[in-house]
Design a protein that fits this description.
Blueprint: H1 2-19, E1 28-34, H2 36-39, H3 43-47, H4 60-67, E2 70-74, H5 82-86, H6 96-102, H7 113-123, E3 129-133, H8 136-145, H9 150-177, E4 184-188, H10 198-216, E5 221-224, H11 226-234, E6 246-248, E7 254-258, H12 260-276
Helix pairs in contact: 4-12, 8-9, 9-10, 11-12
Length: 279
């Protein structure tokens, strides 16, 4: 009788163990890098005085980690450009350093974002996923230097693209070599604010083209189509604002940052790439 009871107990324990969700044993370390889009920046939170608590900002990394078994560390910084990502002394910054001096990020560090990423990878050698978005703030810096003059921006675009290409190559090389990262590296392309504006679409597409070509040349480098996700969700109007993909500021205007719906569309674009790659 005792042997039978013990056998029954072992069988019950085995059944319970087999019923444990697989995801509980498969949670992977995930590092999110980039700018305000990854950060989940919302100007309404800032104006309401909520920036002192970074949990008020929810970006696509948090949305992605909610649907995949991922343990997220979001090191992104609002205003981060590709030069400032590499070194704090770089003049290529669009406000990340100022933001960090005023408000906390999702994780605390006092180095360049790349240095933090390398330190993170040393501490998490089994990390399987990095996502990154960089390049939009490089464009914003150029627009500021040009005073909004479109001719000046177009004239400066080739140099911007060359700088972005070189910086991304440096970033990826250091993540792989110095950080020892061998997992999936997924770059998210940027969306347009108005898909009916051919000049804007051409400029964003040029930036996305550099991001895609440099990332695809990497081992286990993948590109998530944020541009296409917003274009599809914007419908015939071609307006992400009208489609509810951007944070609404008034009845007729939107901020440049994704709304919760836009954030989720970007997260889904990345999730599709990760799943297709064999997650």
């Amino acid at each position: 009788m005792l042997r039978a009871r013990m056998f029954a107990l072992v069988a019950v324990v085995a059944l319970l163990l087999s019923a444990t969700p697989a995801s509980a044993a498969e949670v992977q370390d995930y590092l999110a890098l980039g700018d305000s889009v990854a950060f989940g920046f919302d100007p309404l939170v800032v104006s309401a005085g909520g920036a002192s608590d970074p949990t008020h900002f929810v970006g696509y990394p948090e949305a992605l980690a909610a649907v995949l078994p991922l343990s997220l560390t979001n090191a992104s910084c609002p205003g981060e450009a590709s030069g400032g990502f590499i070194a704090l002394v770089s003049p290529l910054d669009n406000g990340c350093r100022r933001y960090r001096s005023l408000f906390p990020l999702h994780v605390a560090y006092n180095t360049a974002q790349l240095d933090f990423a390398i330190a993170y990878l040393h501490a998490h050698p089994r990390a399987k996923l990095i996502t990154i978005d960089l390049g939009a703030n490089d464009l914003f810096v150029l627009q500021r230097v040009c005073g909004g003059d479109s001719g000046c921006v177009l004239a400066g675009l080739p140099a911007l693209l060359a700088t972005l290409r070189g910086n991304l190559q440096t970033i990826y090389a250091q993540l792989r070599r110095d950080g020892g990262f061998h997992g999936r590296l997924v770059a998210l392309t940027y969306y347009a604010l108005d898909y009916g504006d051919p000049t804007q679409v051409a400029v964003i597409s040029a930036i996305n083209g550099v991001v895609a070509s440099v990332t695809s040349a990497q081992p286990a480098g993948f590109v998530a189509d944020g541009f296409g996700a917003f274009a599809a969700a914007s419908g015939p109007s071609g307006s992400p604002c009208a489609a509810g993909l951007l944070i609404r500021l008034s009845a007729t205007t939107c901020d440049v940052h994704p709304s919760p719906a836009g954030r989720d569309a970007l997260a889904e674009a990345i999730r599709a790439v990760v799943r297709a790659a064999g997650d």
